[in-house]
Task: structure prediction
Amino acid sequence: MVKCHHAIVHTMDTIRYIKYYFFYLALLFGLLYTDLLPISSQINTLQTTLTLSLLEPFLPEGALKGIDIWITPHYKIYISQACNGFIPIFILWAAILAYPASLKHRLVWTLISYVSFTLINILRILFVVYVAYYAGGEESFILAHDILGNTMLILTGLLLLRQMVRTI
Result:
């Protein structure tokens, strides 16, 4: 009887976590990513500007012009709102905020994940740029960006979430 009760409680905790996860996911994307509020546009612009300023020292001189990174005179990669790192950050933040831990623990891991994802995103973009530059432009861009770059982000999120859970 005790095992059955424990399984029910565990199932209820899981359902509660999933509900909170989707609530926080909708809240974060609705308020901070979409253009529902004027502040979301400002926050995304700041994050994109930060991303570009952290990238610039590692790019060939003159390659960065505005939000464009020129690979060749005829091919460029542009850093849009979708490239600023907020999508994976918000996905992880929703998981962290929904997790049953102390508020302090969740806030600390929200900060750690922001810094970690911002740096990993810089490495991801640099990886994509250099692969596209040295391996042949658009064809290599798809592999580097869509598959390898996104895999970097997914693995980073999973490792950060795992580490957060382990430190409770």
User: Anything to note?
Assistant: DSSP finds five helices and three strands in the chain. The CA atoms of residues 30 and 36 lie 7 Å apart. The chain has one domain: 2-166.
